[in-house]
Amino acid sequence: VLRLLEAQLQDQRREHEEEMEALKNQVDLMQEELEKQQQAFLQTLQLSPEVQVEFGLQQEITRLTNENLDLKELLEKLEKNEKKLKKQLKIYMKKVQDFEASQTMVPVERRPHERNMQVAVQRKEKDFQGMLEYYKEDEPLLIRNLIT
Q: Can you give the residue range of the structural domain that contains 18?
């Protein structure tokens, strides 16, 4: 038991050290980036107001261009997902049509019983706003569960 616990402790210690090393590297990279940004900021302060405005505009254009590219990528992903979902919808519609066609071939003895069941379902219809019924205060929990 002691050996097992020692091995687990050493594994945890090694994982912790690796994680700490990765975090230190990340902090170093962030400090370097901060220094670069501070130097750029100091250089822009030394420039004339007209050049500062032009530099600010160039930075904003760059930021907007990057944001635009990100949005284009997202749009492409969503379009691919839409095509995939449309294909799935066509497949399911075909299955429903096949199922309905097979139901029309059901013997006559079963049809009246199925009609009675449909009438019962129609009586139970409610005015739904969605697929789920829940209390308003449970909404954050429901959303969190859906996401996970």
A: 1-46
